[in-house]
């Protein structure tokens, strides 16, 4: 056999093998494609593999009103008690504010009254001091008058004062004893012995401190007169 027929035979065999291979390849592709479709049909969708979120609640319509929950009787009672307590506290606070204002007004009035009393006291003290000065000046003037008089003339006048104004007589006699004891002694020598004895007792009693409160007040009133 010549080489040419062998070559042809080889080519034919190669072609058959190629066709067979193509046929097997087509079958494999078909089988793999079917298997892939089967797997795709059996497996869940990618979006469905994860658990789907719960469905959202349906949105309420605009006309739907929310449910109204009425308070219980105990809650109402509690609210009423709280409201009453708050009103009582407000009233108490208002009363305290009013009382505080009244106290402040009273304190201001007391301060003003105290200031007026102090001013009045100072005026009285000044007036009393002025009167005392005037009395002292008048007493000194009377003492000078009696001191310049003759003892025989001064004695009857002083005896008359014993009947009309003993306090003035006592003040004049006490002042003369201190300022002009010699002239006072001369007047006493010219006076009635009974008058001299009574005046001496009055001067001695005046020199003694008061024994009772009433006596002190009496002397104070007499000195003021």
TrEMBL record:
This is Magnesium transporter MgtE intracellular domain-containing protein. Residues 41-63 are annotated as: Disordered. Keywords: Coiled coil. Residues 89-123 form a coiled coil.
